[in-house]
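Lecture notes, part 5. Sequence design as translation. It can be helpful to think of inverse folding as translation between two languages: the language of shapes and the language of residues. The source text, in structure tokens, appears below.
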């Protein structure tokens, strides 16, 4: 054995990401339920089993909203060393990814309108892997910019052609 100590990555997303994920979920669930409720009232009012189905759907959509973002925040991790980028994602199906610096092709920062509102960004590390890019989500926007700069410097100084 070569002495590699596999441990969970050290860092979590910025705590503000929980609010962002919660708002995203609400922006999906509330309009959908409003449309379905309106259609129900217009076309099927008084049909008990359809009303019950709508209530069950509302519970299925709304109950996870305060729970899932917090679990996602607690479980997802990331870390960058001089040798590699590490990510751990997933709740039920967990995925651990390690991208050596010599395999990194591009480093991108992205920020949607809601993310701008909460001051957070995502960093995507594209590698020469068929598994696809590694995503570090919900970082403070200044940390994301610094991380992108650091990764770019490290990968430029790392020998190899990232293929």
């Amino acid at each position: 054995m070569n002495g590699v100590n596999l441990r969970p990555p050290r860092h979590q997303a910025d705590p503000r990401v929980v609010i962002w994920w919660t708002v995203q979920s609400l922006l999906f669930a509330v309009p959908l339920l409003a449309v379905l409720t309106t259609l129900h009232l217009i076309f099927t009012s008084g049909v008990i089993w359809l009303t019950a189905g709508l209530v069950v759907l509302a519970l299925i959509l709304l109950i996870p909203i305060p729970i899932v973002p917090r679990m996602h925040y607690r479980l997802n991790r990331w870390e960058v060393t001089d040798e590699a980028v590490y990510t751990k994602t997933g709740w039920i199906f967990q995925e651990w990814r390690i991208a050596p610096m010599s395999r990194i092709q591009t480093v991108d920062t992205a920020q949607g309108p809601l993310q701008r509102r909460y001051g957070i960004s995502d960093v995507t590390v594209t590698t020469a892997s068929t598994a696809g890019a590694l995503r570090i989500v919900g970082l403070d926007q200044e940390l994301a910019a610094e991380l992108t700069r650091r990764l770019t410097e490290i990968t430029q100084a790392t020998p190899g052609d990232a293929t």
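The translated text above is only one of many valid answers, since several sequences can fold into similar shapes. The chain has two domains: 16-69, 78-157.
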